[in-house]
Design brief:
With 155 residues, this protein is mainly alpha-helical. It has one domain. It has six helices and three strands, in the order ααααββαβα.
């Protein structure tokens, strides 16, 4: 069974600020109790939430809802976490209308030639991120129990 993590641990392991964890929670991307899968979902969400496609205008001061292509990217990343074919070579290509996984160099080349030609795409090194999660979580500081304060004496 996967370890249960705090939102703080998920954000640190995903290499994002804790405010991204709250945004992801509010958008329905991650749900307590948090696990390693949420680390990757948060990392992908933090990337795609900031992405603006060529030709689109996006006002940074406005709140933006989760778009379909962002959902597709996060869901593909979650699926890759449990896919036995996922390796350090696995990449996630994010497009305006799709999210495509390639698990080998050959699949990446075929995907680039067949489906990405002339299209704008964003490549995430998903396999490397997944491979780093256990080590990153092991390096996170564990919380220490607080020392109880001595009782106050009357003066």
């Amino acid at each position: 069974m996967a370890a249960t993590l705090s939102a703080y641990a998920v954000a640190n392991a995903a290499h994002v600020s804790q405010s991204w964890a709250w945004k992801a929670r509010d958008a329905g991307i991650i749900h307590a109790p948090y696990t390693e899968e949420d680390v990757i979902a948060l990392q992908v969400y933090a990337c795609v939430a900031q992405l603006v496609w060529p030709g689109e205008r996006r006002v940074r001061s406005e709140k933006h809802g989760l778009e379909l292509w962002q959902s597709l990217a996060v869901n593909a990343a979650r699926e890759a976490m449990s896919d036995p074919l996922t390796s350090a070579e696995t990449v996630l290509w994010v497009l305006q209308d799709a999210a495509l996984l390639a698990t080998t160099a050959g699949e990446r080349a075929a995907l680039e030639l067949d489906q990405l030609r002339g299209r704008t795409a964003f490549r995430l090194p998903l396999g490397e991120w997944i491979a780093q999660v256990p080590q990153t979580l092991a390096q996170l500081p564990t919380s220490r129990p607080r020392k109880p304060r001595p009782p106050m004496t009357a003066a």
